[in-house]
Design goal:
The chain is mainly α. It has a domain at 5-92. The chain has six helices and two strands. Helix 2 (28-44) packs across helix 5 (75-91).
Length: 136
């Protein structure tokens, strides 16, 4: 799956509205990384019986996620966070090993997919826009 610049922009704007913050208060790189991990989690959990309905039930039980779901452009980020949580629970300590088998191509301005290291994302290949932590 491709996460387009338009989808990223929509998520940033939608989440800023849903969370009542400025777009500059949100970490665009962090949003891309969460969306990416959400998509990877869907692939890895496809055979484990985790469905969109199960994800929506988990989202509905969390007040902050409900706030994010209130804006259609922020909803994919809320769902991606829950998918990521399900993968963390399912994979446990073996999460990096499972992630190594997934081929992810990223725009270097958002970091580099590198689950073979001690982290999932590493520094950007772009000298002008370094990868940052998930939260600002």
């Amino acid at each position: 799956m491709t996460i387009s610049e338009n989808a990223i922009e929509a998520a940033v704007n939608g989440c800023a509205t849903a969370l009542n913050v400025e777009t500059t208060d949100l970490n665009r790189i962090g949003i891309v990384q969460i969306l990416t991990l959400g998509e990877v989690s869907k692939v890895l959990l496809a055979d484990a019986g985790v469905t969109d309905d199960l994800i929506d039930q988990a989202v509905a039980s969390n007040a902050e996620m409900q706030q994010m779901m209130a804006h259609q452009d922020c909803a994919p980020l809320a769902r991606a966070q829950v998918w990521q949580g399900f993968l963390s629970q399912a994979a446990g300590a073996d999460i990096l090993e499972q992630l190594q088998g997934v081929d992810v191509q990223m725009n270097p301005r958002y970091g580099r997919w590198s689950p073979d290291e001690t982290q999932i994302f590493s520094q950007s290949g772009s000298l002008s826009t370094p990868a940052a932590s998930i939260l600002k």
